[in-house]
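Hypothesis: this fold can be encoded by more than one sequence.
Test: take the structure tokens below, design a sequence, compare later.
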């Protein structure tokens, strides 16, 4: 596909932590061209290079530097609106774009649990896209909303999905160690997080408990096993670590669980999706992996790394998992969702 025939897209919340990742990952994308960068009134009218306090290690893409920030209102040429908006404002803005005929691909929590909105991990529940048809009627104009999960949930649901399919999860307990970038910019004050762990992230435990069941269920009925989450903020820049214990209906062994996790592949492999990792889950054998610094960029940040698959004396099986929170847990996930939408004819 030649450059000028790429699908025009907008980024809502383009100046934030997720927005910057979207700008970076969409630079030179084969299917999408960034046509609009939008943010709050504080940024509107300023060139992106001034409005965004860029903090990614790679340089700001040159296409974005001189683009003026637009208000988050429809009215420009964009078929897809990627949303990295603050949750306090995302709900009604995303609805406005859906009403205006846009495919809204959102990172925000606001519409994730709406029964008619897919909460998508393409490798796990692409069949939930069937919910879109009813949305097109609701919003008129052909628009709709698709969401990706909370940044910790995606690591949990993606790693648990093959185990649930193979053995049937009955109960699951997860403890998280979550990176600072998960709180956006400027996020947690340095005096709060340096030399410290904060055992509370507002709303995070509830999101992990409910979103995991929605993803692992059918389009209209969530899965029904018990999930208990405890979430902590730790002094890591990027990469959320999860310690998972679970009980399965059909007894299994660490060896068998490892095989199931390793063999897990997406059924979407033939679609040629640019952001689909070859391996959704990488299982490490070393006793001290996964580690955020070493493993977060696995599969260009889109692969969840699992390690330490072993017996749990209480629930049966336990493992550690690591997910890059702003790539697989946010921007990369929403780009993959948009790619699936295009490949399946929804755009
Ligand atoms: P952030 O760094 O605080 O960025 C928020 C963005 O929203 C900025 O672009 C900001 O623009 C814009 N915004 C704020 N108020 C606005 C308003 N009234 N009107 C229009 N735009 C407004 O937050 P973030 O970490 O990127 O998170 C963005 C969303 O993704 C949140 O809903 C978050 O829960 C979700 N999420 C984040 C992560 C992560 O790892 N960080 C992972 C998954 C999901 P200005 O710069 O102009 O203020």
């Amino acid at each position: 596909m030649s450059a000028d025939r790429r699908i025009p897209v907008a980024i809502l919340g383009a100046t934030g932590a997720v927005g910057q990742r979207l700008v970076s990952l969409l630079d030179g994308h084969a299917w999408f061209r960034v046509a609009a960068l939008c943010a709050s009134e504080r940024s509107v009218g300023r060139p992106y290079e001034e409005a965004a306090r860029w903090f990614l290690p790679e340089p700001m893409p040159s296409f974005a530097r001189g683009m003026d920030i637009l208000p988050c209102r429809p009215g420009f040429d964009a078929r897809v609106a990627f949303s990295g908006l603050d949750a306090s404002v995302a709900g009604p803005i995303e609805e406005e774009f859906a009403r205006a005929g846009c495919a809204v691909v959102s990172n925000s929590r606001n519409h994730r649990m709406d029964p008619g909105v897919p909460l998508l991990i393409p490798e796990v529940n692409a069949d939930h896209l069937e919910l879109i048809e009813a949305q097109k009627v609701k919003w008129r104009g052909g628009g709709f909303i698709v969401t990706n999960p909370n940044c910790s949930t995606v690591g949990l649901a993606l790693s648990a999905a093959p185990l649930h399919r193979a053995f049937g999860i009955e109960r699951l307990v997860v403890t998280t160690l979550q990176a600072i970038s998960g709180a956006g910019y400027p996020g947690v004050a340095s005096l709060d997080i340096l030399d410290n762990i904060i055992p509370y992230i507002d709303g995070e435990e509830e999101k992990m408990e409910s979103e995991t069941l929605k993803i692992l269920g059918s389009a209209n009925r969530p899965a029904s096993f018990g999930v208990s989450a405890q979430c902590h903020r730790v002094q890591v820049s990027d990469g959320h670590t999860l310690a998972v214990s679970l009980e399965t209906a059909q007894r299994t062994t660490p060896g068998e669980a490892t095989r199931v996790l390793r063999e897990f592949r997406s059924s979407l492999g033939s679609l040629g999706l640019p952001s689909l990792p070859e391996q959704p889950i990488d299982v490490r054998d070393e006793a001290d992996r996964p580690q955020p610094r070493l493993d977060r960029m696995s599969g260009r940040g889109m692969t969840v790394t699992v390690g330490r698959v072993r017996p749990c004396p209480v629930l049966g099986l336990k493992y550690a998992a690591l997910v890059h929170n702003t790539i697989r847990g946010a921007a990369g996930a929403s780009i993959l969702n948009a790619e699936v939408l295009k490949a399946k004819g929804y755009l």
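The CA atoms of residues 172 and 246 lie 4 Å apart. The chain has a mean pLDDT of 96.
Hypothesis status: open.
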